[in-house]
Amino acid sequence: MPDASSDMPLPAPEIAPADRKLGVICVGLGAVATTFIAGVELIRRGMAEPIGSLTQMGTIRLGKRTDDRVPLIKDFVPLANLDDIVFGAWDPFEDDAYVSAANAGVLDTARHLEPIADALREIQPMKAAFDPAYVKKLDGPNVMPDTSKRALLDGIRADLRDFREKHGCDRMVVIWCGSTEIYIEIGPAHQDLDSFEAAIDADDASISPSMLYAYAALLEGIPFANGAPNLTVDVPALRQFASDHGVPICGKDFKTGQTLVKTVLAPMFKARMLGMAGWYSTNILGNRDGEVLDDPDSFKTKETSKLGVLDTILQPEMYPELYGDLHHVVRINYYPPRGDNKEGWDNIDFFGWLGYPMQLKVDFLCRDSILAAPLALDLALFLDLAQRAGMSGIQEWLSFYFKAPQTAPGLYPEHDLFIQQTKLKNTLRWMRGEDQITHLGVEYYADDYLPES
Ligand SMILES: NC(=O)c1ccc[n+]([C@@H]2O[C@H](COP(=O)([O-])OP(=O)(O)OC[C@H]3O[C@@H](n4cnc5c(N)ncnc54)[C@H](O)[C@@H]3O)[C@@H](O)[C@H]2O)c1
Question: Measured between alpha carbons, how far is 377 from 374 in angstroms, rounded to an integer?
Answer without folding.
Answer: 5
